[in-house]
Design goal:
The complex is a heterodimer. Chain A has helices at 18-49, 60-67, 85-92, 94-125, 132-144, 147-157, 164-178, 195-223, 227-235, 240-267, 272-277, 289-299, 303-331, and strands spanning 54-55, 58-59. By secondary structure, chain A is an all-alpha fold. The longest helix of chain A has 32 residues, at 18-49. Chain A is globular. Chain B is mainly α. Chain B has a single domain, classed as MetI-like (MetI-like fold, Orthogonal Bundle), CATH 1.10.3720. Chain B is built from 14 helices and two strands; from the N terminus they run ααααββαααααααααα. In chain B, strands 1-2 form a two-stranded antiparallel ribbon. The longest helix of chain B is centred in the N-terminal third of the chain and has 35 residues, at 67-101. The chains are: A mainly alpha, B mainly alpha. At the A-B interface, helix 1, helix 4, helix 5, helix 6 and helix 7 of A face helix 1, helix 4, helix 5, helix 6 and helix 7 of B.
Chain lengths: 337, 285
């Protein structure tokens, strides 16, 4: 019999009284039932829908069938007569491909920037300084801010003409162009109106909000490293740079993998910041997959196709998690996981 | 470790710089909510009474003239967030307790406690967009669209995995002896759970509650999808300001502060539970 993983004391409930045999199920069932009915069942239902042409207000084929007095057929009102049409459309939908590219851009650039910045800030915060508790509290604020508000604030910060940032750039450009260097810096940056700038700006906003998360977790990891390891290294003549790369970084590696994975999976869900900053524009240059799914389902009312796209998102998420974990396992020293 | 003067200066400069980056947007929201439209729309004005004359008219508009509208959305957010938080904590604590104290074996899947726990936490990482279509259809059929209950159900589902994960971790650290002695004294298993275990794990409950509350308070996609008037929450209401009569930055700023302030205040008061929950979530994940 395999013991329950973590409980140090041997469980006395193994044999179990009658009450315990019942209570055991009572405790776990609500969560399992909720997840089965609201997560697993919808998942398979959605898979079914993705093979149909259900629109808002029912399936077109089903409606035609009803008119010829045959009545709707199939499971849950689904009619599978169009089967693979949605999946064929996935292949040639340019807008979907651009949404997928954008989402991957957000995930990869976002995770990289947030991890590097978060690690650097964790190193900084791990030092002793006055006001450390205040700074920790300040750090938490962006994480709890409504993303929609982050988006609006970001729009005020990144306006090309009227924002404090634009003001700063203008003053900087005036000063730099005035220097005898022959510079001609254009202070007007299309932060939200040019496709590639807008994508970067959205990553910047997400970074502003979530770097604290990365930092706090890595900081907790750093503080759990016993001091004597560093003492021993110092006796052997290691400098701080070497100590960071030879001790801190390797020890934090498993934690880093988790943090990066969590952030990556979270960024796959991005929608709210984009909706209020660019609305997916210019054109569809900043649209994410979640946003495209939402628009397909609600604005265009095409439920079948929206369901098919959501499986593209799921497959991307699974590939990301698998590839990343495989790479992390390969890169880590033997026996680490 | 000994630091040189320059290293100390660099350290404080970096910290100050990042604090500035974090805090400045809040400062900007705050000042914008007191700016007259012309001051907000032209060149940036930084310091009240120096660069611009502050006005409280937007706050009066928000809190007096349009109070019923503001309050309706605020209340909707409050109901959805607290309802789902309560359910997620209850169901999550129960499942966490079960997984920590009993041995399960699902014969069909050959799953034991760890497999079940992993399955539950993996639900958290499924993109919510996957369920958009089934939820839309089911909610329309069941008449749950634009109902508080509808949002509460959806958010409970999203919050449960994390709640189970954290609570299980917490219960694993609680000694079994306390419950045992209560049971010897004649308490039922359920009585021991509600009267002994839950009160002792108040810190764990607190961090689960904060995370669930903040998630539900901030959630946008499902609130947008499943509501259209009566049950609209703050984030959806704020996002909707985008199109009406152009963007009224001053009004949006005041609204944004109303939406953000309660969460941040609660968060700052309960800061240690947040850090604890984050770390527990990541270390075990």
């Amino acid at each position: 019999m395999q013991q329950a993983k973590t409980n140090p004391t041997p469980l006395m409930y193994e044999r179990g009284t009658r009450e315990d045999r019942i209570m055991k199920r009572v405790f776990l069932s609500p969560a399992v039932i909720i997840l089965l009915s609201l997560s697993i069942f919808p998942l398979f239902w959605s898979l079914g829908i993705s093979f149909t042409d259900i629109l808002r207000g029912g399936s077109t084929t089903a409606r035609e069938a009803a008119m010829t007095a045959e009545g709707p057929s199939g499971f849950l009102g689904m009619d599978f007569s169009v089967t693979l049409r949605n999946y064929e459309r996935l292949l040639e939908d340019e807008r979907l491909h651009s949404a997928a590219r954008n989402t991957l851009y957000y995930v990869f650039i976002g995770v990289t920037v947030q991890y590097i910045l978060g690690l650097a800030l964790a190193v900084v915060l791990n030092q002793n300084f006055i006001g450390r508790n205040v700074v920790r509290v300040i750090f938490l604020m962006p994480m709890m801010t409504v993303p929609v508000v982050v988006g609006y604030t970001g729009r005020m910060m990144f306006d090309s003409y009227r924002s404090p940032l634009a003001d700063f750039l203008r003053r900087f450009a005036e000063w730099a162009n005035g220097l005898p260097l022959g510079l001609h810096i254009n202070p007007t940056v299309p932060f939200l109106t040019d496709g590639s700038w807008a994508r970067a700006t959205i990553v910047a906003m997400d970074t502003w909000q979530w770097v604290p998360f990365v930092t706090l977790i890595l900081l907790a990891g750093m503080q759990a490293i016993p001091d004597d390891i560093y003492e021993a290294a110092r006796v052997d003549g290691a400098n701080s740079w070497q100590m960071f790369w030879r001790i801190t970084f390797p020890i934090l590696l498993p934690l880093s993998v988790t943090v990066i994975l969590i952030r990556g999976l979270e960024i796959f869900k991005i929608i709210d910041v984009i909706v209020v900053t660019t609305g997916g524009g210019p054109g569809s240059a900043t649209e994410s997959l979640t946003m495209y799914i939402y628009k397909t389902a609600l604005t265009f009312g095409n439920y079948g196709y929206a369901a098919a796209i959501s499986f593209v998102l799921l497959i991307l998420v699974i590939i990301f998690a698998t590839v990343f974990l495989t790479l992390a396992r390969r890169a880590a020293p033997r026996g680490m996981y | 470790m000994r630091r040189s003067v320059w290293q100390t200066i660099l350290l404080y400069a970096l910290i100050a710089f990042w604090c500035f980056i974090v805090l400045f947007p809040y400062y900007w929201l705050g000042t914008t909510s007191f700016k007259k439209p012309l001051d907000a729309l032209r060149f940036p004005k930084y310091i009240p009474y120096h660069d611009f004359q502050p006005t409280t008219e937007h706050w009066e508009y928000l809190l007096k003239v349009r109070w019923d509208v503001t309050w309706r959305h605020f209340r909707n957010s409050l109901i959805a967030a607290s309802g789902s938080t309560f359910l997620a904590v209850l169901v999550g604590a129960m499942a966490g307790y079960g997984l920590s104290r009993f041995q399960y074996y699902w014969r069909a899947l050959r799953w034991r406690n760890d497999n079940i726990a992993f399955w539950i936490i993996s639900q958290r990482f499924l993109p919510p967009a996957l369920f958009v279509v089934p939820f839309l259809i089911a909610y329309a059929d069941l008449g749950l669209i634009d109902k508080h209950v509808g949002l509460i159900i959806a958010y409970t589902m999203f919050n449960i995995p994390f709640a189970v994960w954290i609570m299980r971790d917490f219960f694993d650290g609680l000694p079994v002896e306390l419950e045992d002695s209560a049971r010897v004294d004649g308490a039922t298993r359920w009585g021991a759970f509600t009267r002994i275990v839950l009160p002792l794990s108040a810190p764990g409950v607190a961090s689960v509650a904060i995370f669930s509350f903040v998630f539900s308070w901030n959630e946008y996609l499902y609130a947008l999808m499943l509501t259209n008037f009566d049950a609209i929450t703050m984030p959806v209401y704020i996002a909707g300001q985008n199109t009406q009569r152009g963007v009224e930055w001053w009004y949006i700023s005041a609204l944004a502060i109303t939406a953000v302030l309660p969460v941040i205040l609660v968060g700052l008061l309960l800061e240690r539970f947040i850090t604890r929950g984050l770390v527990a979530g990541a270390l075990k994940g």
